[in-house]
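User: I'm preparing a small set of examples for a lab meeting where we compare how different chains pack in three dimensions. I only have the primary sequence for this one, and I'd like the structure in token form so I can line it up with the others. Please keep the answer compact; I'll paste it straight into my notes.
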Amino acid sequence: MQSKPLIRWAGSKRKLLDTLVKSLPKDYERYVEPFCGSACLFFESKKKPALLTDINSELINALNEIKSNKEIRDQLLAVPNTEKEYYRVRSIDPSTQNANERAIRFLYLNRNCFNGVYRTNKLGQFNVPRGNKTGTFPPQEVFDSSRKKLKEATLRVATYHETLKSLKKGDFAYIDPPYSKSVNFTGQYGLGSFNSSHLGALFADLELLHKKGVKFLFSYRACEETISTLQMNFNVERLSVKRHISGFKNSWNEAEEILVKNYD
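Assistant: Understood. Below is the structure token output for the 264-residue chain.
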């Protein structure tokens, strides 16, 4: 397991990695992750061709730059880690930058923002404040191992539905949508991000994957309606995981989640 996550991500399944790795199917031809985020399970999965997708174009661009740029850690360390610099970098319009500059901006803000949250305002501008005690970038070995692993992956900006409908028998999909309790919640990515109103469509996609012979592992917060719907056709396991509430360590609490899979 990588000693330190390359990308911080609110809602990351890093605390469940041991369980997730053990839950991977024994046989599959391609690993697919349609809500890739920090892709922490991908980095611990078997060596296979992979497809990583997300609607966050800044994230996908950053992963592509990590994949191709051996000097990216040095570039990141050259940016001063100060409050003044954080807000200067945050104020830059990424559409005015080239791919490398956009990746540096994204990764710098991701490392130094509050709780690894990605959130935008109604204009699509990243607006998360600077965090405290966010730590430093991982050592060069983590960047090197991540770059090597990403060589196996195709990276694409796409919705989860576009990704899932393209899958075929032999693929394995790890599906970990962001949690939201409200259909009006604009999400970490702004308008159009996944929320609870999309669960019905996602469950229909799971049924289609199963009919096509595509193996999947789905993780989500536990709720009785979701569990009763999915356990009719799939294996549902309840898990307890310690999570930050509002991002503060003094507000840790046990949360119940589920893992759903369509294979033994």
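A couple of notes for your slides: The longest helix spans residues 99-112. Strands lie at 30-33, 50-54, 153-157, 171-175, 215-221, 235-245, 248-261.

User: Perfect, thanks.
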